[in-house]
Amino acid sequence: MKKMIYGLFFGDSITYGEYDGVFGGWVDILKRYALQQFHEGSNELILFNLGIGGETTEGLLKRMPYELAARNSAEGNIVFIGYGANDLAIKDGVPMVSTVQFRNNMIEAIHHAKQYTNDIYLVSILPVSRKIDGVQTATGKLRTGEEILVYNQILKDIAVENTLHYIDFYTVFLRDKEILLSGDGVHPNEKGYGVMAETAIPIIEKYL
């Protein structure tokens, strides 16, 4: 029997798909893929893009319980959590969310998600372009490659400790980051988002 499964993607502008005027970002590519598969007779997998530009894990915790309750399929849910790019950004000399707080916030977010599903995916933070590594951008935020590694390690550790899945977009991007990131050096371009979708399609295939 066909099931109706909801996929909820929590995240910042990279989940939302900012800077992709062509495909609308990786989540929207997956959404279209799932709809197309459904017409071919598989499970109905309905994906919700819940990304908000500039959001940190602090913002996530304020809305997550409500978002989960509003979009809960009795037949199954999958939750994707993609944070860190803003949390680790240094603004006025301090990270927006410290490593300790980031870890605690992620654990709390997982606790919320676990009330609805055991299928939880933590999404890695992407590398930034060489030209903005350690450079304050127009938004007043500064990101470094070192910090990205530190916060990604926190995500990996949490995934292991809680037997969750970790989607390693970081490694996928690392070698070709200069051609996969947009002009601002933080967000993927159309090509980058396409690579993210290709990496994630095998994951959602499992539920189709």
From TrEMBL:
Domain SGNH hydrolase-type esterase, by residue range, is 9-193
- Name the Pfam families on file: Lipase_GDSL_2
User: What SUPFAM superfamilies is this protein classified in?
Assistant: SGNH hydrolase
Top-level taxon in the UniProt lineage: Bacteria
Q: Which InterPro entries match?
A: Ester_Hydrolysis_Enzymes (IPR051532), SGNH_hydro (IPR013830), SGNH_hydro_sf (IPR036514)
The record's GO molecular-function terms, alphabetically, read: phosphatidylcholine lysophospholipase activity
The name on file for this protein is Arylesterase
Which species is this record about?
Chryseobacterium lathyri
Organism classification = Bacteria, Pseudomonadati, Bacteroidota, Flavobacteriia, Flavobacteriales
